Amino acid sequence: MTMSITTANKFEYLKSRLGVPFYENEHALIFNRECISSMNLLENEIFDLTVTSPPYNIGKEYEKNLPIADYIKWTGEWVKAVYSLTKPNGAFLLNLGYVGLDSRAKAIPLPYLIWQTVPFFMIQEIVWNYGAGVAGRHFLSPRNEKWMWYVKNEAQYTFNLDDIRDPDVKYPNQKKNGKLRCNTLGKNPSDVWQIAKVTSGTNRSSPERTPHPAQFPTDLIDRIVKGFSNPGDLLLDPFIGSGSTAISAIKNSRKAVGFEVREDYCKIIAERIDSMLEEEKQRKAQLCLFGENVN
Ligand SMILES: C[S@@+](CC[C@H](N)C(=O)[O-])C[C@H]1O[C@@H](n2cnc3c(N)ncnc32)[C@H](O)[C@@H]1O
Fold first, then answer.
1. 286: phi then psi, degrees, rounded to nearest 5
2. How far is the CA of 187 from the centre of ligand 1 (A)?
3. Is residue 256 part of a domain?
4. What domain range includes position 22?
5. pLDDT tens by residue, 157-189
């Protein structure tokens, strides 16, 4: 059902249905709740964009492995809930990796297994080439995961190409008939994105790293948020982990709602958002000191 509720009272609507969030401010609501049962308590198409990476069923500390048929069924349930809460012109960016299948596959891309369960229209698959990782001995070293770009309406969806153009152009001054051949903002970033993953380790840990074991790099989510949503939009991450989707949403003037079952991860999210907002406040205060316009 589509009901017209303004951005200002969507947060009130969510709280009236889901109770007190673990964390809230004017930009984000984080619920320490299981996502399927929570989304099933909602009935309006309120989200412009969902960005998420669910558990992959590979035995990480935050998941319990299921038989593959049950995992596919579970995926169908949460994706259906996301679909029913997505605006008619909204989108769904889904990050998935690989799983092993007994006697069938060492590593099969999860998108192959869940294809039948997704009611969205698929625009395309984006390959995220994340740089370093484990070294294979009897197979090629894995260096990518996929992002599935889904929309609800194939004829009407947000794509802000100019906001995500790649300025790294080989021949920026090349002309044809006196006109520059390349867009001055840069080239189309293509469907292969080379963005380093968040690393751990004593000497090679990424500065943005939190204790969460599967944190998205913010550069990656920034590209998705800018490319596939507009300022003021409401974003959802049903498996928000360390809060990367909320961080990127706030940084880019969007709003975010997240679900996370583990309270320790919710604490990471709260600290991350608060420290980002504090840094932003201090940055603006410094600029004011030098008489610069901060907006
Ligand atoms: C792959 S991680 C997401 C990491 C996230 N993209 C980030 O940047 O930190 C998946 C997260 O989903 C959470 N989770 C698992 N099942 C859940 C459920 N049913 N509802 C809500 N959260 C869940 C896990 O605790 C975990 O933090």
1. -60, -45
2. 33
3. yes
4. 7-289
5. 999 999 999 999 988 888 888 888 888 899 999
Strand order in the sheet with 144-151: 23-24, 28-31, 255-259, 234-237, 47-52, 86-96, 144-151, 121-129, 192-194
Ligand 1 pocket check for 259: Cβ under 6 Å: yes
> For residue range 200-253, what is the model confidence (pLDDT) as tens digits?
777 777 888 999 999 999 999 999 999 999 999 999 999 999 999 999 999 999
Q: Is 196 inside a domain boundary? A: yes
pTM higher than 0.90: yes
Q: Is the CB of 236 under 6 A from ligand 1?
A: no
What's the gap in Å between 55 CA and the centre of ligand 1? 6
Number of domains in the chain: 1
295 domain-assigned: no
Output the residue whose Cα is nearest ligand 1's atom 7. Answer: 215
What CATH number does the domain containing 52 carry? Answer: 3.40.50.150
Tokens 């004017």 -> residue: 26
Q: Is residue 226 part of a domain?
A: yes
Q: Does the beta carbon of 31 sit less than 6 angstroms from any atom of ligand 1?
A: no
Higher pLDDT pick, 83 / 9 = 83
Q: Does residue 272 have its Cβ closer than 6 Å to ligand 1?
A: no
